[in-house]
Design goal:
mainly alpha, 5 helices
Length: 86
C-alpha cells in the first residue's frame, strides 16, 4: 500500500509541475484507469450499512474456553512422540 501512496504522490507532483496525467502514468508504467481506481479506493470503506459488531460474536472468556478445550482434545488424541516431533 505504501507503494501506491508513493506512486500517487509522484503523479500528483508531476501534474502540479505541468505534466499530463496520462504521460505521468505511462512513465510509471500504470494505466490511467488503475490510477483512477487507486484514487477511488483511497477514500476508505464505501460499503453501506451499519458498522456494529456481530451480535453473536464470542466474548473473550468464551473464546479462551473454546481454545482451551480444543487444546485438550488435540493433546488427548495425540501420542507424546507425535507432539514432540512437530
Amino acid at each position: 500500500m505504501e507503494t501506491r501512496q508513493h506512486t500517487l504522490a509522484l503523479i500528483d507532483e508531476a501534474c502540479a509541475a505541468g505534466a499530463r496525467q496520462a504521460r505521468a502514468c505511462a512513465v510509471l508504467e500504470i494505466s490511467p484507469r488503475t490510477l483512477q481506481r487507486w484514487r477511488r479506493e483511497n477514500t476508505g470503506d464505501q460499503r453501506g450499512g451499519t458498522h456494529r459488531p456481530a451480535h453473536n460474536k464470542l466474548s473473550g472468556a468464551e473464546r479462551e474456553a473454546l481454545l482451551r478445550r480444543k487444546a485438550i482434545i488435540i493433546f488427548q488424541s495425540s501420542r507424546i512422540y507425535d507432539l514432540m516431533a512437530g
